[in-house]
Design brief:
alpha+beta; 5-stranded mixed beta sheet; two-stranded antiparallel ribbon; 3 helices; 16% helix; 37% strand; elongated
Length: 174
């Protein structure tokens, strides 16, 4: 996902270029197809990259532990700073902020690392294969989406016995 931005760095502030992207990026342990559109806008110190990209990763459901394909939408907005002046060829200092993205000395802007970072942030914390996923039986471990089990689910955890006793007493006083 590399684009030469030398001509855009020579243009006036506010100039815009739109690109359609389709490339494989190493995300979460494997190459994933990333597609979408990005807009490069010339700003005071560099290039502002904005875009909406789509990809999908294979991930484990947090309820049933089955692997499934999870779609991700990445709304990217990052500023890239040149390391070399496009006219004079002199070395430029990057801003004094951690994690800023740079345009290399050949004026190539590579959005691969930004896409990888945004993808990692877009992965759900508790992924579920579908909203109505029932999960696993806590006693036997069967996937309740695929089959039912004959476990006695009526027994409560003994740690709840005091609360269950209070509930029974409150029902008796009504």
């Amino acid at each position: 996902m590399q684009i030469n931005v030398a001509q855009q760095l020579k243009s006036t502030i506010g100039s815009v270029r739109d690109y359609e992207l389709s490339a494989y990026v190493d995300i979460a342990g494997g190459p994933r197809l990333v597609e979408g559109s990005v807009r490069f806008t010339r700003v005071d110190r560099g290039i502002l990259v904005q875009g909406s990209l789509r990809t999908a990763i294979e991930i484990e459901c947090s309820r049933c532990l089955c692997l499934y394909i999870c779609p991700l939408v990445l709304d990217i907005e990052e500023e890239y700073f040149p390391t070399t002046d496009v006219i004079s060829g002199h070395r430029l200092e990057l801003p004094d902020k951690p994690g800023c993205f740079a345009i290399d000395e050949h004026h190539i802007l590579d959005i691969t690392e930004a896409v990888r970072q945004y993808s990692l942030l877009a992965i759900p914390m508790k992924p579920v294969c579908r909203q109505d996923c029932v999960g696993l039986c806590p006693q036997c471990g069967r996937n309740l989406n695929l089959e039912s089990c004959t476990c006695n689910s009526g027994e409560a955890d003994p740690r709840w016995s005091v609360l269950l006793k209070l509930e029974e007493e409150s029902k008796g006083t009504r």
